[in-house]
Amino acid sequence: MNKKAVALFALMTLLSTSMSGCIRIPCELTGSCDDHLECGTELLPEENWIGMPLPSFATVDQDNQTWNLTSMEGDVWVAYFSAPWCAHCEETLDAYDQVIPEGKLLIFNKDSREEYSNMTEWQESSEEYIARNLSRPFMNAPELAESLDVVGIPNAFVVNETGVIVDFTLGATTDPGELAEMYSSYTD
Predict the structure, then answer these.
(1) 23 lies in the same domain as 51
(2) Looking at the structure, do residues 59 and 73 belong to the same domain, yes or no?
(3) pTM (2 decimals)?
(4) Which range has the worst mean pLDDT, 2-6, 96-100, 176-180?
């Protein structure tokens, strides 16, 4: 075996072990958000989210209305996590918007970068993408996303009347019927 082959093998081994936490390449590097998960992170298994109380939060939406966990008590609702740059997430947002009742869908930005913190711009670009108005709260909440270990997007949690996560979706979920069935199973 020649020295170049040995060196290449050693380099590949080093890179593969040091990057073993990378589930997918971040879309900022590829220009495509189809498989966005951040490097060096692992997804929480379902059993870690189900039954977990949603962490307390207090934030304002694009219309300066304050939202917090206490204001959602007594209702089954959906905490939808995404980011303004995630184009494929818009189809999932559209499906959720079609079936979740007014006041029961909160849209949270998980990206902490300043250039993605304008929630009015995000709402407007989402409305343009799905070609209709969205009267939902869009909120910048990277700390909440981090406290839930939200990595892959879109990621949505069904939260029960007492603030406990009872179900979730991760990745593109574009069938409104499927989402309506899931949501209604917790409200009937």
Answers:
(1) no
(2) yes
(3) 0.77
(4) 2-6
